[in-house]
Fold:
Amino acid sequence: MSKIFVNQVGYLPDADKVAVVEVLNEKAASFVVKNNKGAVVFEGTLSDVRQDELAGGKYALVDFSALSEEGRYTIEYDGNESYGFDIKAGVYKDLYRTSLEYFTLSRCGEAVKDPVWGHEACHTGPADIYGTDRKKTADGGWHDAGDYGRYIVAGAKTVMDLLYSYETEKGLYGNTMKFWHEELSILDEVRFELEWFLRMQREDGAVYHKASCYRFCGFIWPDKEKDPLVLAPVSTTATADFAGACAYAAKFYKDSDPDFADRLIKAAKLSQEYLDSHEDELYKNPPEITTGGYGDGCAKDERYFALCALFGATGDAEYLKKAVQMRKELQQNPWWGDGFGWGCFTGFGNECLLRLDQKLLESLDAESRKIADGLIEEIKEAVIATADKALEIADSNVFAYPLPKIFWGSNGAVMDAGHCLTMAYDLTGDEEYFHCFQRQLSYILGVNPVDYCYVTGFGSNPMKNPHHRPSGFLKKPMPGMLSGGPGAGLNDAIAKEKLQGAAPLKCFIDHQGSYSTNEIAIYWNSPLTLGLSRML
Structure:
């Protein structure tokens, strides 16, 4: 029987509606959509039938975009029926809220109030400052991923995604998500992370790379991990990401808490002073620390991001001039790109400049205005070129996978690619970019060859066994978490054992032990939240 892969959460009435079918019977060329009473409401024929190497089979598109009436539906093709799905206004609102609540439930250093996921304050008290006999308290922040570490570079990406999401949806929700236990502002949630950021900064402006225990713990409850805490050595990437995130965030608190906004700007400037006076300090785990490294071979993109954000926050043209020079240096790096990721902050620097206040630009002297205008035009072209590349790759396969490789954390990268596509749409008005973005979202929510909704707690066949310590301890998944997704490198023992020979997009297993395909992370959830904010 042919399989039918559908967005299991559903579709907005006026949005694109595309599913994929596996073609096992060459003679079967038509499909129907039925409502929950079994009546046929739409008929169509397959399109784009092709052998797809990424998915390892013959597949075709099912396009029923013309169906806009709200209701509950299934698709039938070649004797098989899809999972049920909804067409309705606001179909993504619950998912959006739950993807945000995940951050609240992932708070460290304070008691979490929830009937299922609540716990006492965890990972509190003085931490060893590695390589010294001193200690420092740095409570707070979000647990990073399936483990309980807290990492500046991962947190900075997450902060930026969530602030962009806030800017996108604030008109709809008035900045407030209503959870069962409280009303929570997105800005309050981001502030919780930023308060931890400030505790991670040294007096000279340098920022410790991470706070964690010396090694990973087992699948225990957060407040039961009692091993010694350690602050890892400072790094250029952490210091620059800190500076950029704090500088960009300051404007969101200027009216409600000017003192906090001022603290963020002063901290960002201090970190930039440190960066200006120090060569790169690229992070590598010391032998005694074996938690996530988040090492990066190039810090120029992080430096560029910090300078762009500081220019936007202060209007100081010296930051702009340094950003132009850093971008030129960055372009000499063979790994350079204008995308997004915990190890690729060029896109965030670009977007800081694209979101500049027009009044700031008008206040510049003629020379600085010319520099700013030239850089912004270059960035616009770069964003469109990046999105065009994603379009080209997505068009080359049936499932619209937009990346040249299928790697550890691919699902987060898919949503980051969607971020680039929506930026290009905003710049050009070309709906092809937005159509492609919608297919990326549908890929995450079920239109993929393993037939999973990759977000816990949503869809008819959600991922249920994430590599996530609280979920593993309770033997049930925390809702609203995005799985890392297929990883063709088979980077863990379970993947190596179970997925040998699988097609690249099928290199996924819903198994707690497969951390390279089924872990979760704050910086994968955040572009999902950002993408969903575009669909509200």
